[in-house]
Amino acid sequence: MRTTQGYLFLLLGAAALGMMAGMAKAKAIMTVTSAGIKKGAFELKYGKHGTQFFKGMPTLSFPIEIHDAPGGTRSFALFLEDRDAIPVARFSWIHWVAANLTEPDLEENASANPKGRFVQGVNSWASRLLGDEALTDVEAARYGGMAPPDKAHTYELHVYALDTRVDLKDGFFANELFKAIKGHVLAEAVLAGSYPATGRA
User: Fold this and answer.
1) Which phi and psi angles does 34 have, rounded to 5°?
2) Does residue 158 carry a pLDDT above 90?
3) What percent of the chain has pLDDT over 70?
4) In whole angstroms, what separates CA 34 from the centre of its chain?
5) How much of the chain exceeds pLDDT 90, in percent?
């Protein structure tokens, strides 16, 4: 009887350990980080206080590292926005939208040199509200850096792990991305950082 009980305890113990290991594995949540953010703020070179521009639009994109993507992930999508722009522009400003990334890391300035690794959508620098200063959709299908006009703004990067690649080409609009990923999002991670209006934190 004791032998049977001891064996039963061993089985229960092994099962409990297995469950704990499974729970620990399940607790791994996808996150995104960037070496371009220091103490909660984007480095100045990634926005209007930097040195790389196209027709007045900052174009030096920051590096991204995606961690603990769930199993079954086939691609990633990115969406960078500035909700603090709403009182100024009357809409949330889109700075970067990209899809079909198959690697979890993007180096600095990857937007300018995608090399066929991902496709990019149109950012708000093509907004018709900018009048003659607006870029064309083709020109704005890339990273458009931070340029807060009034005060420091907070920028949110949303990263989506998808179970598929989406049928989008360069120059797509953000709403097309969100329609395409509906029902395919395995996980989402958000990274936030601030950027100053004056060049000082």
Assistant:
1) -150, 130
2) yes
3) 86
4) 10
5) 80
pLDDT of 150 higher than 50: yes
| Whole-structure pTM value | 0.85
Residue corresponding to tokens 């149109």: 122
Residue 175 belongs to a domain with what CATH number?
3.90.280.10
C-alpha 185/C-alpha 172 separation (Å) is 19
Which domain covers residue 148, as residue numbers? Answer: 29-195
**150 secondary structure, DSSP code:** S
Residue pair 119/20 in contact by the 8 Å Cβ criterion: no
- Which amino acid does the sequence have at 93? W
Give a yes or no: residue 78 inside a domain. Answer: yes
pLDDT of residue 133: 87
Whole-number Å distance between alpha carbons of 88 and 176: 25
User: Parallel, antiparallel, or unpaired for β 153-162 and 93-101?
Assistant: unpaired
Distance CA 82, CA 63 (A): 18
Gap between the Cα atoms of 176 and 114, Å rounded = 20
Q: Which two tokens stand for residue 55?
A: 């027709």
Characterize 61-89 residue by residue with b for buried, 16 or more Cβ atoms within 10 angstroms of its Cβ, and e for exposed. Answer: bbbbebeebeeebebbbbbbbbebbeeee
Radius of gyration of the chain (CA): 22
Q: 15 lies in a domain?
A: no
